[in-house]
Design brief:
The chain is of the alpha/beta class. It has a single domain, classed as 5'-nuclease (Rossmann fold), CATH 3.40.50. The mean pLDDT is 89.
């Protein structure tokens, strides 16, 4: 085994992607167990890189998402659910990064610039915080170049994917650039106890 010196993990979450995971689980009366998921990420990296299990620590976690203004969220009957969801993130020390959602001319809600913000913040923090690993929870091809740049800085770019159909919808361009992928669906099929560790009964 390698030295037990602490290895710092930066966790960066695509908020829309994560919300869809939670929504998929809600149909089963469950939700993401954020604390359990973070522990699983730490354990998986330790095993992959042959480190002591206590050596890998998520030292920062950041969540990026578009957010309706309070009045709009109230009109859409989303305000309470959004606040409860945010409470779970805050309780797990996840730093929230929001930009307001705005409507396109046809009335379709749109997030502008979230992916760029995600990429810029991830790269800047990876460089200045000295992360040993960066984990991204997303599936978007927009982060292909971010993963490539992290690798050029000798920082493993690790992808956690989680989907609710028969096919992994993660963009191939992104998968081609990451250091390795944690595909939760495949992992849960291989280990039936995993679902009980990274999900929990939904209380609402």
């Amino acid at each position: 085994m390698a030295s037990a010196d602490i290895k710092s993990i930066g966790l960066f979450i695509d908020g829309n992607y994560f919300k869809l995971i939670d929504k998929g689980l809600k149909a089963e009366g469950r939700r993401v167990n954020i604390k359990g998921l973070i522990k699983y990420i730490q354990k998986s990296i330790a095993e992959k890189y042959e480190l002591e299990s206590s050596a890998c620590v998520v030292t920062e976690a950041h969540f990026f998402r578009g957010r309706y203004k309070a009045y709009d969220a109230k009109k859409l009957n989303l305000l309470l659910d959004d606040r409860k969801f945010e409470d779970r993130l805050i309780e797990n020390d996840i730093v929230l990064h929001y930009k307001h959602v705005y409507d396109l001319p046809d009335g379709t809600p749109h997030e502008k610039g979230i992916d760029v913000w995600f990429a810029l913040e991830t790269l800047e923090m990876a460089m200045y915080r000295g992360f040993d690993f960066v984990v991204m929870i997303t599936g978007d091809a927009d982060y292909e170049m971010l993963a490539r740049k992290l690798k050029s800085l000798k920082i493993p770019a690790i992808l956690l994917s989680w989907h609710y159909d028969d096919q992994d919808a993660t963009a191939k361009a992104l998968k081609d650039e990451i250091s390795f992928q944690m595909n939760i669906n495949s992992l849960m099929k291989a280990d039936e106890t995993l679902k009980g560790f990274i999900t929990e009964a939904a209380s609402y």
